[in-house]
């Protein structure tokens, strides 16, 4: 019994490019479709982080002194190290894509390894940073020493104040204490400062003539002076400068911090997984000038991770 010749379908399959999916006609069409799909995905990522950035902007505009004080509990040097690591890894990632396009496989693999090393370095620094926050009582919710219901060990000055601070929005205890920088603080200082609060009368002069009254500075000048004083001393904003209602809100800065940096860290972990995947494939010689789509797409994702951190670093660590 003779064997039937292979069908046309099997013949086409035998000569088919293994990197070309069956529903695409050409490699270029496949590459362009994949690129558009990745950009759409990155747009959804930007929308997600954009919502967090909007929430950050609203909260910071409503409670500026809370952010000025709480951000001093972050170590900007660790944030700066992570910024350098991600920028360097973004550079090596872009170079790896170019090496793949030129079929420089050994260089591509080396650059991908350096990119992974930069991402791992970021995670190591973040682990030390998160661990320090946990041990100093600067975690989230009831584990944060600035929370009004904090039950953990006493840390620094915040736990003692948190026990007596009213809940956010309450009027008890917050009407007589105001921080410089808030409207209440300026008004209170303007009313209580001796040089601004009283009008002095000079004693009667010769022949019973009463000299002119001493004219106090204008309200606008008082406000300008106090604003300038606040501007020059806000880096040394102390816990006592915050009114009780704002003291009770201080822990919410750390909620925002961990939410935004934690979500970003999750994206770094996902990116490292993708980088490891294309590195292993690159070691097997899967990429070259004829096919480098996965390297290009993972590179786009990694650049987004880097870009988001470039915004997070100054917004959280360099507040002024």
Tell me about this structure.
64% of the residues lie in helices and 0% in strands. It has 320 residues and is an all-alpha fold. It has one domain: Cytochrome c oxidase, subunit III, four-helix bundle (Four Helix Bundle (Hemerythrin (Met), subunit A)). Helix 3 (64-70) packs across helix 11. The protein starts with 7 loop residues before the first helix and ends with a helix.
Structural class, from secondary structure content? mainly alpha
Annotation, overall tally of beta strands: 0
Inertia-based shape:
elongated
Radius of gyration: 31 Å
CATH class: Mainly Alpha
* Named CATH topology: Four Helix Bundle (Hemerythrin (Met), subunit A)
Report the major sheet: none
Unreliably modeled segments: 1-13, 167-206, 208-214, 229-234
- The succession of helices and strands, N to C, reads HHHHHHHHHHHH
What is the number of helical segments per DSSP (H or I, 4+ residues)? 12
Helix content: 55-70%
First and last CA, distance: 87 Å
CATH superfamily: Cytochrome c oxidase, subunit III, four-helix bundle
Domain count: the total is 1
Q: Give the amount of beta strand, in percent.
A: under 5%
Architecture, CATH level 2?
Up-down Bundle
Mean pLDDT across every amino acid position: 79
